[in-house]
Amino acid sequence: MITGAAFQRKAAVKSAPLEQTAAADLQQQGEGLIWISLPSLIALRYVAAKLPRRLPLRFSSRSGHYVSVMQGRGMEFAESRPYAAGDDIRSIDWRITARTGKAHTKLFREERERAVIIGVDLQRTMHFATRGAYKSVVATQIAALLAWRALHQGDRLGGMVFAEGEHLEIRPQLGRSAVLQFLYQMVNHQVWSAKNPAEQGWVASAETQEISPFSHQLLRLRRVAHPGAQVIMVSDFYTLSSADEQHLRELSRHCEVALIMVYDPFEESLPQSGHYLVSDGVNFHGLDVAAATLRQQYRDQFKARLDYLDALSGRYRLRLLLCRCDEDPAATLNTICRVPTPVIASRVH
């Protein structure tokens, strides 16, 4: 005879595998939508092989600006030697000159491979979507495609993955191992394993920190990116501030800089009039979008952000590319890459 307690223990043992299976199925359904796996990013190497070699040489896909002169590959320091008549005074090595008391000139050699540095934003605003996949998921897919493309081109790959709680950095390196290391850093960033904002290091917001995660990333890029490098930043650029303009200006003086903005259709315009329930995973709030003035203000706010990025692109010779999170990142990149350079076009996304 089985007692009630024994029966409950036996039932619990039988139901445990079912619960684990259901949880695993639910987790699997979220792959590629709210989180990303390493195998899926590795598989993108075949897709990246079909992308055109270079991004379009335009500063902005909205206003139609385009690059007239290529930045070229970088020059790396080789050695210093005593100054000789006819040497360019801009190449004087002032440190050695001051130490020895005799003028010395820096000698440079052309880098055989260009450095491609990809910055991926995983801050809290990136973990959002109303259709398609989270912006953070789309951003990692774009970064993976660009990383594999850099490998196919024979470039050195570097990467930065950042959020409020953690900043990961990979110095530019050659080979497949550099790509795999970059993909591993993206997939294993702490933001994916956290269950609520507090666990993701979001208790202290960017405003209360001495320097915001985005500003810190730009500062690191200025120190890591050598002249001639290609710097690609994938983000929604919500935390980009006017104080960061100096970093972009300095980067664009010596590097080829591209901004890839990932956004959700909900951010562009509110849905049909009605009352909606929104949540950050912990708290729930009601959202009433019936007011016409509210809907217009919302659209204007998004347009203002886009106009600001477009103005930066034109001012500092950057390339601005747009990708909506309910579209295939590979198809979007492929479309953008195949747009002819001199064409004056409206916004591409």
**Judging from the principal axes of the Cα atoms, what is the shape?**
globular
* Main sheet strand line-up: 5-4-3-6-7-10
Output mean pLDDT.
Answer: 75
- Any idea of the CATH class of the largest domain? Alpha Beta
Helical residue percent band: 25-40%
CATH topology of the largest domain: Rossmann fold
Tally of separate helices: 10
Unreliable parts: 1-16, 18-27, 56-74, 197-208, 339-349
Fourth CATH level, the homologous superfamily of the largest domain: von Willebrand factor, type A domain
What is the rounded distance between the termini?
Answer: 68 Å
Strand percent estimate: 15-25%
Largest sheet: 6 strands, mixed
The gyration radius over C-alpha positions equals 24 Å
- The appropriate CATH architecture of the largest domain is 3-Layer(aba) Sandwich
What structural class do you assign from the helix and strand content? alpha/beta
Number of strands: 10
Number of domains: 2
Give the ordered list of helices and strands. Answer: HHEHEEHEEHHEHEHEEHEH
Quickly describe the structure.
The protein has 2 domains: 33-70 and 113-337, Rossmann fold; 75-110, no CATH class.
Describe the structure.
- The structure is a single chain.
- With 349 residues, the protein is an alpha/beta fold.
- The protein folds into two domains: 33-70 and 113-337, Rossmann fold, CATH 3.40.50.410; 75-110, no CATH class.
- Helices cover 39% and strands 19% of the residues.
- The protein has ten helices and ten strands.
- The strands form three sheets. It has a six-stranded mixed β-sheet, sandwiched between helices. The protein has a two-stranded antiparallel ribbon with strand order 1-2. A two-stranded antiparallel ribbon has the order 8-9.
- β4 and β5 form a beta hairpin.
- α2 (38-48) crosses α4 (135-152) and α6 (213-224) packs parallel to α7 (245-254).
- The longest helix has 27 residues, at 4-30.
- The protein is globular and about 75 Å long.
